[in-house]
Amino acid sequence: MGMKLLLFDVDLTLINSGGAGRRAMSRAFTELFGNTNGLHKVSFAGRTDPAILREALEHHGDEWSEVIQEAFKRRYLEYLVHEIARNHEDKHVEPGVEPLLDTLNQRSDITLALLTGNWRAGARTKLEHFSLWHYFEFGAFADDAWIRNELPAVAASRFEENSGHGIAPENVYVIGDTPRDVACAQPFGARSVAVATGLYSYSQLKAANPDFLYHDLSNMNAFLNMLEGKNEI
After folding, report:
1. How do beta strands 110-115 and 4-8 pair?
2. CA 20 to 30 Å from 50, out of 41, 65, 150, 167?
3. What are the pLDDT digits (tens) for 149-181?
4. In what order do the strands lie in the sheet with 212-214?
5. What is the CATH number of domain 20-84?
6. Which of 131, 138, 133 has the alpha carbon at shortest distance from 111?
7. How far apart are CA 141 and CA 123, in angstroms?
8. Pairing between strand 15-16 and 4-8?
9. Are 77 and 18 in contact (CB under 8 A)?
C-alpha cells in the first residue's frame, strides 16, 4: 500500500469550539462596521473564513477589499484567542479523534494534514487549545484560497514539497462534516470521507455521495479498513 495523505477539516470534524469562531468573528465585524447582527444570516458550515466575510459584507451593503479583509482577520484572530479559552458546555474533541490520530500518526505510510476553511492562525489557535495541532505536518488553509475547492491541490503541492515526490489523487482523503467537504474532494479526484458530527445528518451527508460515510470517528477499525479500500458506500 502506497502513501496516503489524510486531509482533516477542523470545526465539527476534529473539535467543537463551542461557537468560539462565530463569537470572535461577530465581535470583529461589530468593531469594524458597527453591526451587531452582521453575521446572523451567514452560514459557516464548510465555508472558508474569507467567504464568510464576503457574504457578511454583501448583506451589510459593503464591498470586499484586501484592506478590509486584513483588518477583519487581525481583529478576529485576536478575539479568537480569548473566545476559545472561555468555558462552554459544547466545547469538546469529537468522538474517537484522539485515539485515531494517535494510531495514524505512528504509521509511516500515512501523512496527516489539514484542509480547512480557517485561516492558518485560527486553525492553530483552535487545535492548540485542544492539544491536537502537533499531529498535522502541514495544511491547506483559507490563506491559500478563499474558494474551498482549490484547497486539495494546494495540500497535494505541499505534500510534494515536503516529501520530494507526488501523490496520486486517489490516495488523498478529504475528511469533513459537510457536503462542501465532499464537494471539494471531487474535482481534484480525492476520496471524500464524511462524518456526521456537525450540522448535517447522516442521511443528508449520504445524499452528497461521499466515498465513505461514518456517524463519527470512534470506529477505528472501520476507518483503518477504509484505508485498505474497504467499507466504500
Report:
1. parallel
2. 167
3. 999 999 999 999 999 999 999 999 999 999 999
4. 139-140, 110-115, 4-8, 172-176, 191-195, 212-214
5. 1.10.150
6. 138
7. 8
8. unpaired
9. no
